[in-house]
Amino acid sequence: MIIATTETISGKRIVESMGLVRGNTIRARHVGRDIMAGLKTLVGGEIDEYTKLIAESREQATDRMRDDATRLGADAVVGVRFTTSVIIGGAAELLAYGTAVKLADGD
Fold it and tell me: Which residues, 6+ apart, have CB-to-CB distance to 23 below 8 Å?
């Protein structure tokens, strides 16, 4: 399965658009991570705990989007975007979405 942020895929021709596909995950912060992050804000630098949390969330949302496209019989997902939103204090959603397509070799 090809996943692309572009609207086209080099060397391939889109022969069918199969519609919107998406995957999401909602994650809550962890008290232990919050304590470590709070300490890190005092001295500056990257907050590794949150970097890992968002990376895991992005991968899970992408996997779920890919599964959605696979169920439709798609070869690729184009125009992929990511968005986040706060659900409640301490919990956020990460959403991956794009357009599922069928491909043929380019002309």
Answer: 60, 61, 62, 63, 64, 65, 66, 67, 68, 95, 96, 97
